[in-house]
């Protein structure tokens, strides 16, 4: 109550009313001057100045948005980059674009300052000064997490909310996605984007291409919201309405950037899934090979493929006598070399019965 009384006693600042620019605020003009024409000319000149100022504001806004879209593309590309040289080049491009973004941000602030200091006139005096009230609050100091703690937190989040994240991945309408995020604000975060990205790779590996593209669309939606939040330095959930408002207005440049990023992301997912599948195939083949290795550490399949045709025939027919005769017909060093390979791979078991010399597994 005391603070309220103190507020009431504060003097009112009338300085903003001192410099109101109105075309017809002069009663005395030269008799030879057509006063109405003079007022119209002044009004027209003021309107043209205001139009030029609005043009600068719009151009600055477009540059900020286009730079933000490019930064989003580069940061997503950086996540997928494998080579150090490629990462270094992308990081340099990001730094360059970030500097440009801050320059345009500074110009936007300067224009806002000029607009605030500009004298009021008949065209601006009746406009709303604001449409909402905000209260500044000090940001809580967040604890710096270690890499292991961050990983554990991410895994815990994904495990806890994976069904909710999957539900978001299935939405195809903008309005449904917007409402779902507003109803579940905790999903607007990096962990959701990471889960959706991993899900896309798994879907592509399972050859569910159409579903992968749907989830990829929602992944880019989330990444755009996150990048917008970084730019505006606000929580991601605060950017949800503004992002979907731009989409709803069918901003051609915004949609073009979105679709380009979506197609590039799908291409990276397809490449990543193929690489991962090839790696899994190689690991499976190597595991199978390890199981086949003979007592000397050689692969019976590989050794069989290296054998001369006459020795292959011996194993194909499982004829031990033919094998012995064929080895005796060879030069001693060559016969010993092939016999040792057969023993090390398990194709021939010394001292075994007649069935020891069997054809290699298919």
What can you see in these coordinates?
- The chain contains 13 helices and no strands.
- It is mainly alpha-helical and 362 residues long.
- The protein is elongated.
- Residues 354-362 have low confidence and may be disordered.
- It has helices spanning 2-8, 35-80, 84-117, 147-170, 174-183, 190-205, 209-232, 240-248, 252-292, 300-306, 309-317, 320-329, 332-345.
- Helix 11 (309-317) runs antiparallel to helix 12.
Number of helices: 13
Q: What percentage of the residues does DSSP assign to strands (E)? A: under 5%
Distance between the termini: 91 Å
Arithmetic mean of pLDDT: 78
Query: What letter string, H or E per element, gives the SSE order?
Result: HHHHHHHHHHHHH
Which shape, going by the Cα principal axes? elongated
Ranges where pLDDT stays below 50 over 5 or more residues in a row are 354-362
The count of strands amounts to: 0
Largest sheet: none
Radius of gyration: 37 Å
Query: What structural category do the secondary elements indicate?
Result: mainly alpha
Helix content: 55-70%
